[in-house]
Specification:
Elements: H1 58-71, H2 75-89
Helix pairs in contact: 1-2
Length: 91
Amino acid sequence: MTEDSADAVVVAINAGSAAAHQQLIFRPVPSLGRADTPVDRLYLAGASAHPGDAVHGGPGANAARAALARNGVAGGLYRDVIAQAHRLLYR
């Protein structure tokens, strides 16, 4: 495999680094540890999202909760709060 791709020499089998800067709220990047993204109704549900691949189904459950909250009774308020938080973070 390393003959095909020089990048394959240093891979993380758990879909992300186990370093401290990639744990908890920092996955996949700092300030994007939630399932919500700056794109409305786009949620992170892969192994690189919090809480990582070691918690089977965890990222998908977080994304499902975020999607249900966004589409629930208070969905408009939820959208506005998340959008405001992203505007503050990504200026």
